[in-house]
Design goal:
The protein has helices at 3-24, 46-51, 127-130, and strands at 28-33, 36-43, 63-73, 76-77, 86-91, 97-103, 111-112, 117-124. By secondary structure, the protein is of the alpha+beta class. It has one domain (27-144): Jelly Rolls. The strands form two sheets. It has a six-stranded mixed β-sheet. A two-stranded antiparallel ribbon has the order 4-7. The longest helix is centred in the first third of the chain and has 22 residues, at 3-24.
Length: 149
């Protein structure tokens, strides 16, 4: 191969890898639960909500995923293909935690909001309990989430 052709192939491969990486990255916002700061990846499309945290092996200590739904409903979560034990908080439009659930890895049990919500926040198992966050608590920063698509 000539050097010129090789460099074009390398540039094309780098461009493809960058495009694939950008496609896989989710928006990240900062949420607050009292004094606790959360770094939340945002799943706001059908595809990103469906994938969720599947296949993830680890989350940082204050890292989670915020699901933004297009409609106010009693949304449910499950753990198919998810190796991490997680806690989920179902949150209404005002940031109030409506209900919480602990979810075991690789299960298909439905964990549903106690009443209609627009958001769900998944964190490592026990995260909410260890910080004293219960139903009725507030999360701040949801207005920074990209709208559902």
């Amino acid at each position: 191969m000539k050097p010129r052709k090789t460099s074009r192939i390398v540039v094309a491969c780098i461009g493809l890898l960058m495009a694939l990486r950008a496609q896989g990255e989710l928006p990240v916002i900062r949420l607050n639960a009292g004094i606790h700061v959360i770094r939340a990846e945002v799943a706001n499309t059908f595809e990103t909500r469906a994938r969720g945290l599947m296949y993830r092996e680890a989350l940082g200590p204050n890292q989670g995923m915020l699901f933004v739904f297009p409609r106010l409903e009693r949304h449910c979560m499950w753990m198919k293909n998810t190796p991490l034990p997680l806690s989920v908080a179902f949150i209404d439009d005002d940031g109030e935690v409506i209900s919480l659930s602990e979810m075991a890895p690789h299960t298909e049990n439905s964990h549903c909001a106690a009443r209609p919500v627009r958001f769900a926040l998944e964190m490592t198992t026990g995260w909410f309990e260890s910080r004293g966050i219960r139903a009725g608590g507030k999360l701040l920063g949801l207005e920074r989430a990209p709208p559902p698509r």
